[in-house]
Design goal:
Bound molecules: 3,4-dihydroxyphenylalanine
Number of domains: 2
Number of strands: 9
Shape: rod-shaped
Oligomer: single chain
Number of helices: 12
Distance between the termini: 80 Å
Mean pLDDT: 90
Helix content: 25-40%
CATH superfamily of the largest domain: Bira Bifunctional Protein, Domain 2
Order of helices and strands: HHHHHHEEHEHEEHEEEHEHH
Radius of gyration: 45 Å
Strand content: 15-25%
């Protein structure tokens, strides 16, 4: 079969027709190689080959100006040009599409030898680790969780806890008052009252939560976390408290850690105690952590004051209970050797990432 080039015999066409045929051919030849996208080539193809408005279609108009006898020959020349141009566009289009595909593939190429980006794992905050651990230990002893409220009224935070207005013990906690009546709770002990109002004994509740005091140094923060415990039932005594504390200390600080109770004062417990654990760093010999004493103070506790039970409608002749409260940050600082409480509130991920379980 003849190639379009060979078939292109319109050089023999009559004068003006030939010039126009040649002009179109030249234009196609000149420009067709300059297109790099199939889309722009398609636009150019329309200029030349569009059935109605294309240059070749326009040529068909001149047939009318040609003498009748020459018309079949001129028609043939134009058709030859059309065929030639169609093939040229088709070939060029195929070539461009191939290149486009190659480019696309190259752009989408994945370099499997690139080292993968390191996956960063989040870590739980030391407070959360301690809270989870405490919940685990106490849930194992049958405690339920109660989460109180951060905004309390004076009654729950103080008065019902046997600390009426003007009681000197209110000075133990620098309170953020929101109004005469409302304040940011200074202690999770406020939750004891809510629990005892809502539930009759037996009660065995653990209550974690944020508390607030106007206090700020290396070991105190205006916002910190406490873990409160409350047990009320018939015949509860200091022995039950001591037994529970022994289990707690061994599980949280390690085997062989002992507890010691020292007399203390809290308005809502009578008697009240401070609880020390034997130093888990030196085994009680005396070191920097325990300041040479062999003991570390970890929480306050006591037998629930009968007035507190009465305030909640529980008969102190029938029931008794013990309560305890500890600072979660203090436990975290002791356990993880953190010496400034601020580190726990600075949201520095380099610090936080060191406490992976
Ligand atoms: N609420 C006390 C405080 O914030 C801690 C505390 C001591 C809680 C003795 C208790 C308790 O339940 O019995 O300092």
């Amino acid at each position: 079969m003849a190639t379009p080039e060979e078939k292109l015999s319109f050089a023999a066409a009559p004068g003006s027709v030939r010039e126009r045929l040649l002009a179109i051919r030249e234009e196609v030849e000149k420009k067709i190689g300059t297109y790099e996208s199939s889309k722009s080539l398609y636009e150019f193809r329309k200029v030349i080959l569009d059935n109605r408005k294309g240059r070749i279609a326009e040529l068909m108009q001149i047939i009318r100006e040609v003498p009748k006898e020459d018309r079949p020959a001129v028609g043939k020349f134009i058709n030859e040009l059309k065929e030639w141009a169609t093939v040229r566009f088709q070939e060029t289009d195929e070539r461009i599409r191939k290149q486009e595909l190659l480019k696309k593939n190259a752009a989408e190429d994945i370099d499997v030898t690139l080292p993968a980006e390191e996956t960063k794992f989040a870590a739980l905050h030391p407070d959360t680790l301690v809270i989870n651990e405490l919940i685990d230990v106490f849930a194992g002893m049958g405690f339920e969780i109660y989460e109180g409220r951060e905004i309390e009224n004076d009654y729950y935070n103080f008065t019902a806890l046997n600390t009426p207005k003007d009681h000197p013990a209110r000075d133990m906690q620098d309170t953020f008052y929101l109004s005469e009546e409302f304040l940011l709770r200074t202690q999770t002990s406020a939750g004891q009252i809510h629990v005892m109002e809502a539930k009759k004994p037996p009660i065995k509740v653990l209550s974690p939560g944020k508390v607030f005091r106007s206090d700020d140094d290396a070991t105190h923060s205006p916002m910190f976390t406490q873990m409160e415990g409350l047990v009320v039932d018939r015949g509860i005594s200091v022995c039950d408290l001591q037994g529970m504390l022994d289990t707690f200390s061994e599980k949280i600080f390690g085997k062989g850690v002992k507890t010691r109770l020292r007399p203390s004062y809290f308005p809502f417990t009578e008697p009240s105690v401070e609880v020390d654990v034997s130093c888990f760093a030196c085994g009680g010999k005396g070191c920097k952590l325990c300041k040479g004493t062999g003991w570390i103070e970890v929480l306050g506790a006591g037998i629930v004051n009968r007035h507190v039970l009465e305030n909640c409608g529980i008969d102190p002749e029938e029931y008794s209970g013990f309560a305890f409260g500890m600072g979660v940050e203090r436990i975290a600082m002791l356990k993880y050797g953190i010496n400034n409480i601020k580190a726990l509130f600075e949201s520095d991920t380099r610090f936080a990432s060191q406490f992976r379980d």
